Amino acid sequence: MIKIPRLFIHDKSYATDKISPVSRWVLTEESIPYRKWDGIATKLYKDQWYIRSIRRRDGIDDKDIHTIFYPVDLLQDYVYGWLKTDYSPYLPYLTEALATEPYSDRLFGTENGWEQGTYELMGPNILGNPEKLERHWLMPHHRSPQLSEVSMLGKDISYDSLLTIFSTYDCEGCVWYERNGYRKTKLRRRDFRSLARGMA
Fold first, then answer.
1. Which residues pair with 119 in a beta bridge?
2. Is the CA virtual torsion 94, 98, 103, 107 positive or negative?
3. Least enclosed by CB within 10 Å: which of 14, 41, 123, 179?
4. Given this model, what pLDDT does residue 66 score?
5. Domain boundaries defined on the chain
6. Strand 8-11 relative to strand 14-19: parallel, antiparallel, unpaired?
């Protein structure tokens, strides 16, 4: 699990009006802007569920690497990767979410079921429940609702246009997926200094 790059260059905690060099592809390539949900990333791979995990390098032993924890991205003293949910304290919430359909099927009336890929685990016991859900759900990232006003911008993306849009949106943010490729970039509502001050 490699961290998705930010759309804008940051000055400490907040976005500047300069698009990051690794994300400038959104100005030239077709992309799909999906709603970003505020939960914990999970993954279904070969009938095994995993959950996003961050661990110190000195806290990972050979047993973890081969049977429990799968490191992907190495950043200074920490390792980002996937933890088997059997060993996660979030297992009861994942189990509840799996007792019904994916959240996208509930929202859109579809029947896609559980597909291989990544999901967002959300609900009452996840990060203080910022999505204000009454039970635990799994939202497939690739079936998340598209943000229509962001989509209408096309490649004409700028700090000011996105600030105007996110001033009216009550969601965590946006993740752009390259339509004909694999690149992604993200923006959180709280990346804007003026909007972060108004958040709880």
1. 42, 140
2. negative
3. 179
4. 52
5. 8-37+144-196, 40-143
6. antiparallel
Residue found by looking up tokens 């009452």 in the block: 124
Residue 100 — φ and ψ, nearest 5°?
-135, -170
Side chain identity, residue 196: A
Scanning the structure block, which residue is given the tokens 């204000």? 132
**Unique residue bearing structure tokens 């995990």:** 53
Tell me the pLDDT tens digit for each residue of 10-24.
Answer: 998 899 999 999 999
Q: How many CB atoms lie within 10 A of CB 72?
A: 12
Distance, in Å, from the CA atom of 101 to the CA atom of 81, rounded to the nearest integer, reads: 26
Of the candidates 77, 92, 96, 83, the one whose C-alpha atom is nearest the C-alpha of residue 52 is 83
Token digits of residue 161: 């246009």
Q: Nearest 5°: phi and psi at 36? A: -95, 125
Tell me how crowded residue 130 is: count the other CB atoms within 10 A of its CB.
Answer: 15
pLDDT score, position 79: 76
Residue type, 142: H
Q: What is the pLDDT of residue 76?
A: 64
pLDDT in tens, 39-58: 999 999 988 999 988 877 77
The length of the chain in residues reads: 200
Nearest residue to 71 (alpha-carbon basis) of 57, 86, 89, 58: 57
Specify the 3-state DSSP secondary structure of 101: coil
Nearest to 81 by CA among 90, 71, 94: 71
pTM (two decimals) = 0.86
